[in-house]
Amino acid sequence: MNNLKDAHWFPLTSQGNIYSMTKLCSVNGSNKVLVASLKRKIYSCEYHLMPNLHLRPLVKELLFTYIPSGAEIISIDAYNKSDSGDGFVIGITILKASTDTSVERYLNIYTEGAIDGEGDEGSSIEAIAQNCLMVELAYTPYHLYHTILPQQNAPNEVVWLLSGSDYKIHMIREDKSNHSYSESSIEKYFPELHDIQGIAIWINIYYYNNYNWRLTVIGCECGLVNVATTNVSELKICQSWKLRYDRPISNVSIFSLKNNIEKPCFLNSNNCKSFLNDQETKLNILVVNTNNAVVFMDVLNNGMDEDITLNGSETSDCILCSCIADINMDGQNEILLGTYGQEVLIFCFVNDTWELIIRKLFDAPVHSICYMDITHDGMKELIVLTQRGVHILQHNIVDVKDKWKKRYKKFLKENRI
Amino acid sequence: MRAVSFVKRLQWDLPGTVCRYGLTIGDVDNDGDNELVVGTAEGELYIFKGSELWQKIPGLGLVTSVAIGDIFNYGRNALVVICGDGWAHIFYSPRSVNPSIINATSTQQLMKEANDQDNIKHGHANVDIETTVNMTSSLSLDQVDGNNELNELSGKMECVHVQRIPTNTKMVLVADVDKDGANEMILGLTDRVVRSYRWSSNSELGRGKLVGLNKWECANQIGTVTLQHMADGTPTLLVAQPGGTFMRIKCNPEDCHLEEETRHKSNETAASCVDYQTLGISRMRNQNISTEIIGDLECIAENKVSNYEFKESFKSSETQHGKNSKSVSLELRKNNSQSEVRKGSFSTAEGRRKTDPSRDQVDGNAFGGNVIIGNYDVKSEKDSLLPTYRHFSRQDIGSNSKTNDLKGKSQTEIDVNIQNNLLQGKPYALATLDGTIMLVKDEIILWSMQVDHQIFALCRLDVTGDGSDEIVACAWDGQTYILDQQRNSVRFQFEEPVRAFCTGNYNVTPGFPTPCLVYNSFNNKIFLYYDVTLPSMVTKPLNPIEELDFEEKKILDNLLENCTDTERQQKLQELTEWLLYGTS
């Protein structure tokens, strides 16, 4: 982890928040990161490979339409609705004080326009930014989240989930016939998200067992944590837990210790597809309240009984964000916590406990962390949004190259090529 | 442009105004670790060691410039503090067990004020021949001894010499400029004059003084004075002049006699050693814009590329387009000689490193074999690098005898290599206030780039750790550019306006010097960013294939056969992701 080095940094004109960063993952492997700042400016950052094999960072300000002057951006989220191409859908929640007493709140959804045969033009991010559908909100928006709505006999649909100041989570779904988005009743699709009695600061939903089951966690401002397992086809809550902390919950996250990354099919000579075997996957839940972080191990079997407090997470001011990533490339996920004390703390699971292995200092409070491949070389970069700007940190190439070579040789030996 | 953010920093309060050259990093007390020395216009001198203020010396007058170097020429550093109101102070750490002369002088606590009247009188009478004020007998010895013992334990700096010099000094440089093996002190004045001095201790014990050698007048305001070695090893002074131009002064030892009778003659010959370089397109630049210059940039590993660029710019010195498209034939043709040159430069570096420890050892035995770059005679113990700079390579602390052996054996060998290497001089860099940064070698502009910030300081620092110097240019608004000699650039934004700036290798923890950027803000604070390192100046993607064996590569190619380039790229990405994150 010490081998993470500054690759790039760019400043923000105004600060963001914990909902300000999202990633745009294209099918062809090129990824971008979108960062919103409070005062209306939205930047995209990507890397271009130059002819001399150097990488050049490209930071652009994106001009999204229908964000009036004076409006403030609260949250941003994006997903790719297409399996084969780039069909980005970007959601931005904004808040605008129209008069002294009233505020207007909107969810702006940007998506590609009607395909008019122009090919690429309709799907470029600049074109998407010009194509807006607005949903007026009667509440102040918080976390904007998207998840899959599994459906029988139809491709899975992606819906927006938006937590609001009205102590509810709202589901906003595309109405294809009217070419608009509208709210549908949440208890019909997500009974576990109905009636939560708190302002959800963070939502996380994890589907397992081939989309037959899902695990849902909600962290609330009042310190409430709702956990539920739901049978998706019957829409029945199977088990649920309620926990109460005396501090706001800033982040919740469901993760497994191991990442299941499919072996590239061109490596398999006998064409046997290795399916993910997630019956055996143990799911853990990370609950971050502002003071410390707690991990509940193997929730599906143990319930919310086996909790491990991350020792040392209380040493660096208020914890604002978290990220689950295999940052040391050992096949096992680490927990990264970003704090108001300008640090990223990294915890590693060793000997049945989580140990603080690295603290890395940044220039300002850390609002959001993301571990993704922005350079399209297969190696992921750590992207850290702080109050002042965005840091992109790259692993030391030489170290990773050694690791790559070693593993490639091992792979060749195993396959006796 | 790539930008980075450095976060490891130290911060100190520093009441007072720091002049542009009023701060420097160097080993001021000869303990092997580098300190930061800052002088203020209010007459206070601050020495920072590790994470703390180590010593504060008040009452010096208007400090405009400080330098750390071997001004006494016996292999140990002293601190030269020059005041704009016409005083030169020399401080020395009593920790040394070196020549008795210094101990004799260092027992004296100087009280300048008491003798002010007297000095000023002398100073007025006679500006060129400076009066020494060495108040050996003005204090009772008992009191002084007590002080001294205290200081000797802590190694704190003591004032060992104060002298009246002409006023309006802007910057000071301690370097050997006439190839005589002894260091000179070079002053650049705001009244367009460059002066050189040498420490003379040939009078009675403890009675040395700085003796004026030369005076050169420039046509215009002086930007910076820097040392630059020519292709044959001759040291020259480059004096930056407005509009991105400079004056070059060659001073030979024979021109620098101290005797009065030769003084007149020497001034004449000195004049003939001055030339003025306008660097090609100087008319394109603003004639009145102030200029910074930094000489003797190390380029060790990157010799090949810079040679190449040198050739390239020969062909088309106006355009910068050809930089990336390397012509193969040119490279092939030059391949042989370049490998020679590279070897040469490595062994030079090697030789220099080997000799350096002999100067840094704290046992006082500072006289070791010294290989001086270039095949001229060694007159006394010193090498030809800038004094603040030579302490940075301290590997391989071997015995002196070993170094001597090495010297004997490999002298001729090194000489040959050196000649190879130094057929081309080292590159030097210029920057103007309007934002032009140029890298120049043998008076040919290798490249230049334009930034839209007002650059006021130009320094060197090896941030990549490859042995070649990067150029660090700092603008008034805190924007800092780090450029390597191949024109790759990295930007760092310091968040406040900057009053003074310097770079160097500072020891936050003893024994581990790290590259540092030092900023003095207008809010009376000093910020020292330490561990300013970048693995490389450019970001590159992970490309593991280039290092594979032929066999392994073939297997990979088989796996990826029948792919278009984009497919291949995607598959490689998948493979890398799987190898790094899917296996263990």
Per-chain topology:
The complex is a heterodimer of chains A (417) and B (584).
Chain A (H helix, E strand, L loop, with lengths): L3 E8 L9 E5 L5 E6 L5 E8 L5 E8 L9 E9 L7 E10 L5 E9 L13 H5 L2 E6 L3 E9 L7 E8 L4 E7 L4 E5 L15 E9 L4 E8 L3 E8 L4 E9 L4 E8 L26 E7 L3 E4 L2 H4 L4 E3 L9 E7 L8 E6 L3 E8 L2 E9 L4 E7 L8 E6 L2 E7 L1 H19 L2
Antiparallel strand pairs in A: 1-28, 2-3, 3-4, 4-5, 6-7, 7-8, 8-9, 10-11, 11-12, 12-13, 14-15, 15-16, 16-17, 18-19, 19-20, 20-21, 22-23, 23-24, 24-25, 26-27, 27-28
Chain B lengths: L1 E3 L4 E5 L4 E9 L8 E6 L4 E5 L2 E6 L5 E7 L8 E6 L3 E6 L7 H7 L5 H14 L6 E2 L7 H14 L3 E7 L4 E7 L8 E6 L3 E8 L8 E9 L7 E5 L5 E7 L3 E6 L9 H13 L1 E4 L13 E4 L8 H13 L12 H28 L1 H4 L39 H23 L5 E5 L3 E6 L2 E7 L4 E7 L8 E6 L3 E5 L5 E5 L4 E12 L2 E10 L3 E5 L20 H10 L5 H18 L2
Parallel strand pairs in B: 1-27
Antiparallel strand pairs in B: 2-30, 3-4, 4-5, 5-6, 7-8, 8-9, 9-11, 10-11, 12-13, 13-14, 14-15, 16-17, 17-18, 18-19, 20-21, 21-22, 22-23, 24-25, 25-26, 26-27, 28-29, 29-30
Helix pairs in contact in B: 5-6, 6-8
Characteristics of this structure?
heterodimer, A: 417 residues, mainly beta, four-stranded antiparallel beta sheet, 49% strand, globular, B: 584 residues, alpha+beta, five-stranded mixed beta sheet, five-stranded antiparallel beta sheet, 10 helices, 30 strands, 25% helix
What kind of sheet is the major sheet of chain A?
4 strands, antiparallel
Which structural class do the helices and strands of chain A define?
mainly beta
Radius of gyration of chain A: 21 Å
Most extensive interface = A-B, 61 and 42 residues
Number of strands of chain B: 30
Strand order of the largest sheet of chain A: 1-28-27-26
Report the total helices of chain A: 3
Strand residues, percent of chain A: over 45%
Distance between the termini of chain A: 33 Å
Percentage of residues in strands of chain B: 25-35%
Query: Span between N and C termini of chain B?
Result: 36 Å
Largest sheet of chain B: 5 strands, mixed
Mean pLDDT of chain B comes to: 73
- SS-based structural class of chain B? alpha+beta
What value does the average pLDDT of chain A take?
87
Based on Cα principal axes, name the global outline of chain B: globular
Name the poorly predicted regions of chain B: 97-146, 256-263, 302-419
Tally the beta strands of chain A. 28
Shape of chain A: globular
Helicity range of the residues of chain A?
Answer: under 10%
